[in-house]
Please model this.
Amino acid sequence: MSDSPLLETPGESGPPRRIAFCITDLDVGGAERCLVNLACELPQSDWSPHVYCLSRRGVLADQLEAHGIPATCLNWRGWSDAPRIRRLARLLREWRPELLQTFLFHGNMAGRIAARFARVPVVVSGIRVAEREKSWHVRRERMTRRLVTHHVCVSASVAEFSIREARLRPETVTVIPNGVDAARFAGALPLSAEELEAPPGSRWIIAIGRLHPQKGHALLIDAVAPVLRTNPDWRMMIVGEGPLRRELESQIASLECGDRIRLLGFRDDVPRLLKSASLFVLPSLWEGQPNVVLEALAAGLPVIATDVEGVRELIDPAAGGRLVSPRDVSALRESISEFVSSAPSRTGDTHKAQSFSPQLFTTHNMARRYADLYRRLLQSEHC
Model:
């Protein structure tokens, strides 16, 4: 696997180079935010980005356009909607980018096919997760890998999975971790007890992620319920929306302490919610490299997380983190209980965790590494 050095590179001479991005949607999510951060961080003196979204217009399109980056949304309805892929190919052919960067499975597949018809010279595919639920995704990646110039994996463990399962050639794979705006999380003001609709002095555990089986929220609720029953000052908030909402609501309603577990849905004040909490928990069954862990670390929170792809590369036990095996409810409960019982003495861990994220995992460093890779690939293309 190759990797781009974190080195400053000089600006390009001549007009900015056209670069296209293709993603499944522009709703709020880790991959979507990563693309938006990347597109906005690339120096516009060197790059002229245009984002193509397969589905309807999402809220992040406004953020792109506020930075002067056009976002074209195709209202795609699935693989049976072949005219949308033809339209994407036509739009790429008309705009003539030098490079296409794709994100997420459907964006990867549609972008690869459209780029071939549009004769885009360089195609970079973003692989965000070690896909363990849908094996046909991996098969499609394998079948279309020859349409891709280079693959960017979000973590070393995702790269290893993709090389092994999708049979990617190691020399075509680069690892570039996610980045977050660390200052946005470190400098956020916590919400008051009144704003959280909780008694003064309440302590919060927080989890963030879409309500989907991958994220393990049902297991987390099972793990945390006994801890909350014996620690009445503690509460839990789960931020995110998804298909399991009703199932999780029923699970919570059946608990004696269910009134102290909140499903908050989508929120636009995540930095403030993180700063209002004492502990972040990630119970995922599989991942790529979870942005929410980076955000929690940037906010200064100790983290308990399952030992899934990308997490071990972020969590340092010396900085207040702890890893447990996926699906191990007992181990997760024990870790949460141990933290809650010793929380008053753990302020030092918070400061250690806060100093971790800004050093390496910033949006600026992420964009710089992508730009370095793009220059290298374009230079190779023109040699």
Residues 2-12, 346-355 have pLDDT under 50 and may be disordered. The CA atoms of residues 158 and 347 lie 33 Å apart. The domain at 182-360 is CATH 3.40.50.2000 (Rossmann fold). The longest strand covers residues 17-23.
